[in-house]
Amino acid sequence: MTQFDIAIIGGGPIGLACGIAAKQAGLSYVILEKGCLTNSLYNYPLNMTFFSTPEKLEIGNVPFMSLNAKPTRAEALEYYRRVTQLHQLNVRLFEAVTSTERLPDSRFSITTSKNIYQATNIIISTGFYDIPVLLNVTGEHLPKVTHYYKDPHFYAFQKLVVVGANNSSVDVALETWRKSADVTMVIRDEEIGTRVKYWARPDIINRIKEGSIKAYFQSSITAITEKTVTIQTPDGLVTIDNDFVMAMTGYQPNFTVLENLGVALSDDAIKQPVYNPETMETNQPNVYLAGVVCGGMNTHKWFIENSRVHADMITKAIVGKSGT
Ligand SMILES: Cc1cc2nc3c(=O)[nH]c(=O)nc-3n(C[C@H](O)[C@H](O)[C@H](O)COP(=O)(O)OP(=O)(O)OC[C@H]3O[C@@H](n4cnc5c(N)ncnc54)[C@H](O)[C@@H]3O)c2cc1C
């Protein structure tokens, strides 16, 4: 079957929640995921711990059992896989949506890397983890610079610069330092981010205070070479020896998917997509948004905890329209 009431673009936690809600409402649907199941979570750091307690990450009324107060990445992967199995969700994996088009009868044609589908409604739940926010400095494209972090062992006995002072940067700095990396943080603001997990913040502050981890506050990188990093600090330019740079400068949604469908974005730096907060329908009829993509560049506004409700809101709106 290639015709559906709903095509859901993105098989993250919120795309899966949308699939469950559609199924429960008796609507036909397909979830199209460009990578593996919950691809973003799969690509998170190996030892990552969620800040949410397990019940706040639950979807489809399936209990999330964790051995810890805060679940790990591995537990979350296991959980969402079991949910997919239990609800027998119609997910097509490794199938990237490459283009979308509104047909004359106002339905949509959705082309993926493997197939062409038709759907009456589209839900965009493409997340934010695919495109990093760049530093825009010379040398950023050297192989030693990365925006994604997997595992600390790789950096043992290496001179590592970590850019940023939020959760990801702090996790990287602490983990790699504990595996014998020589860590220097470059931080734009004057302090460690206030949103950093309450158990990690004092840890990093104390490591910086005692000098175990070096930090340049109110500073930014101006250039990267094979062997050095140059930093603009309040005391002038400083150049330090360096092996690797971990630029944890955040990520941004893929706006092309939204723009191709004609979803309006605000003119400012946030690029806020236009949608009705009660139905999640965009300015384009029958095109809905769900999950972290709803915030535009404000990628901290929506997360699993507070956006899983989008699934029921959208289904209710679609069912309401069709009068079923
Ligand atoms: C380190 C870290 C820790 C976090 N901890 C928490 C936490 O404790 N609690 C919490 O609530 N949130 C947390 N978050 C945020 C949370 O993970 C995201 O908000 C969540 O993943 C959003 O789910 P989503 O389904 O909207 O997007 P995603 O999980 O990003 O899923 C989007 C999916 O769309 C797919 N996709 C993109 N483009 C296409 C395309 N063209 N075709 C097909 N598929 C496509 C992607 O491959 C991806 O699988 C954390 C995030 C990070 C980075």
TrEMBL record:
Pfam name, any one: Pyr_redox_3
Entry keyword set: Flavoprotein, Oxidoreductase
Transmembrane segments: none
Top-level taxon of the source organism: Bacteria
UniProt protein name: YpdA family putative bacillithiol disulfide reductase
Species for this entry: Parasediminibacterium paludis
Source lineage: Bacteria, Pseudomonadati, Bacteroidota, Chitinophagia, Chitinophagales
